[in-house]
Each structure stands twice: as C-alpha cells, then as structure tokens.
Amino acid sequence: MRNLLAGNPVIPVITLDRVDDAVPLAEALVAGGLKVLEVTLRTEAAIEGIKQIIKHVPDAIVGTGTVCNEQQIKLSEDIGCQFMISPGATDTLLQAAQKSSVPFLPGISSVSELMRGLEYGHRDFKFFPAEAAGGAPILKAMAGPFGDVKFCPTGGIGLHNVMAYLALPNVICVGGSWIAQPKLIQAKKWTEIEQLAAEAVALAS
User: Fold this and answer.
1) CATH code of residue 84
2) pLDDT, tens digit, for every residue of 38-77?
C-alpha cells in the first residue's frame, strides 16, 4: 500500500451517482495529474463506474473506498481494483483483508485502533474523520510512539488546511472530495475538475 501511495500526495475521494460520469471524471483527474482514484461504494453506480474507468482510462489507478465488510473486499477483487480503503477496521474486516491479494488501507481514529491494525501487520492507515478526530495535531503526536506508521488523513480536508497535513512526516498522502465535488460532477464541469486536480498537484509539490 505504501508503494502505491508514495508519490501521490492527494487522493481524490469520488462518489458516483451516474455511471456515465465515471470515465470523463477519471479522464479529467488523470489529465490534471491525479492518477490514484478512490471510488466510494456508497452508490449503486459505483461498481459499474469503476469497471468503466478500469476499461477506458488505463492510466488511472482505481480502488474502492468505504469498504466495510468481507463481501465488499471480494467484490473489489472481482472487478479488478488495485487497492481498497476502509473508514474503519473491525477484526472481521482485517481478517478478510489478510486473505486478499489487493492492498488494503484500514481506517482508524484512535491509538487503540492503530495498535490493533499493527497487530494484523498493517503500517499504513487512513485517519478518518481527520478534522473531527483531532486533525494534524493528533497525527503529530502519534509520530512519537509510532515512528514507522504512515497516514492518509481524510475528512474535512480542503485547500484551507491540506498543507498542515502534508507538512507532517508521517502523512504520506491526503484524501479529499474537494477536487471531485458532487456539484461539479453533477454539472459535468470536467475542465474545472481538471484545473482543481492540477492545483492540488502543484500545491502538494
């Protein structure tokens, strides 16, 4: 998972309401410099949308988000996802992920959850919901006892605070929905989304 995220400091978190939006959205994000795409399993359009991106946008690295159970892990494998991200991490989910060949990023919001993930062999985690769970100061504090752990904070992150996270040595990337905002997708503003992606790349570099 770390190899996949390294060099990709901003991961757009995508919620698809229409399958037809999947390919032009992915093309806009990739054109703007963001190749690693997390498509959340929150909508009926998600699975077919992911399939279309994999088929038609070969430069995209596509994974599932909001993976919450063993069935969704199996589904992610079956449709050819290159990674999986969960908002949390139960023992059942962590055990299922151990059996999968697809890289998995479990979500945590506390030290105890982090330690449980470490027991399962993980060293990279989604920190969610980042701002509500304490933000950058919490991650800075975690760096002391958990020096080898890397985080992808997600939740409440935008242009106003993204650099506070990326400046931390234990943050490998951030996840955010400000680039692929639902209102922009709904209006099919692909050029604007491409510009936002390019701005995120420039900011992160």
Assistant:
1) 3.20.20.70
2) 999 999 999 999 999 999 999 999 999 999 999 999 999 9
Q: Per residue in 117-161, pLDDT tens?
A: 999 999 999 999 999 999 999 999 999 999 999 999 999 999 999
- Give the type of residue at 1: M
Helix (H, G, I), strand (E, B) or coil at 67: coil
Domain extent, residue 34, equals 2-204
Residues belonging to the active site = 38, 126
CA triplet 149, 91, 136: central angle to 5 degrees?
35
pTM comes to 0.96
Judge contact between 159 and 203, C-beta under 8 A.
Answer: yes
How many domains, in total, are found in the chain?
1
Are 45 and 18 spatial neighbours (Cβ–Cβ below 8 Å)?
Answer: yes
Peptide bond into 129 cis (omega under 30): yes
Determine the Cα angle at 18 with ends 85 and 45, to 5°: 45
Residue 107 pairs in a beta bridge with 126
